[in-house]
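Here is one chain, start to finish.
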Amino acid sequence: MQKKILIAGQADHDNFGDSLIFSMYLKLIRQTAPEACTKILNPSQIFIDRLNNDNEPVSSVMLDQEGSIDDDADYIILVPGGFLGCPDITDPAWQIKWIKNSYIKKALKAISEISKPTLVHGVEIGPFLRPLVAKTIRIFLKGSFINKVYSRNHGGANYAKKHLHINPTVLPDFVSSVTQFYPEDSLEVNTNELGIHATGKIFSNNILARNFLSDIETCISKANIKSVMIFSDQLIPSTHKSSISKLCARLTEKGVKCTIKDYEGILPTLKNIQSCSTIITSKLHVGVCGLSYSKKVVSISSHPKLSRFYSDSGLSSFNTNYFFSNRKSKIDLMSRILKMNNSQYFNSYKNNSLEVYSIYRSSLVDFLE
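Its structure:
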């Protein structure tokens, strides 16, 4: 009998990490249960477009359609993602929005109502959950329909034990298995000495971003970098284009080859990552992909999930907080990593792509049996 699997997560926005996770997870299900019929719960059109662009056909179940989603699911899986945790310390209002009109809250309610066997497969949990959000998540994760809860890091598991009174099993971040789904392209490897991930924390028009960008330029000069790629995991906002163009012009004047790559899809973004020896990023999954392709990563961010990931991965000294570190410490971190060779950088790295893939596949098999 054909298994009907409904997968849910943050499938409502234009985000590289979440669309990559869904694309990888759909592949994982096909490799694990090729006979299964898999649908995504309530994806937005822009999210569907991202997956289609990656040659992933999408079957969906929408929450606003007539009837119950009950007929579309024998099994339900909350795929890996950050949707049960704090997205950024700079967004104190996110929990108000989560309670009032949350895409995820609606999905959890719909899943609870049909009460089918549900796997929570490697999610972020907490921190900083306010009482109403914490209560909603706790009630869901303690539901009788929940088969097993997996956290994607020890920080989330410890938070869940202390504040939600549940005891998740810890898995590595699922994206660490990216090379099992998108093998390295030997033609793309290390054609650029440095990749700069075009995020707002680097290219926005504010004093913090301008200072950070100036510090990156200082490090490029000190390390005598000769080739730089500026790349994005979403279409570059018009507000960032001027700053990016001016940086490229300044670098070119100094004899540095500078290339700008706008977002063209999941696979082109992964190839951009593969083409860089070192990557500077303020986001999680560009960094995780870089590490999986054996690229040195400088992580400077304000997201709690990044400090959790780098701690679990044995690389906590290569991640620092965007707001709570001064300019000198940022320059010192970037300069130190740029001077390192790969064996020095990865000496304490704990994740292995094949092992991570095997763990997720094995736990998925256990659930579907």
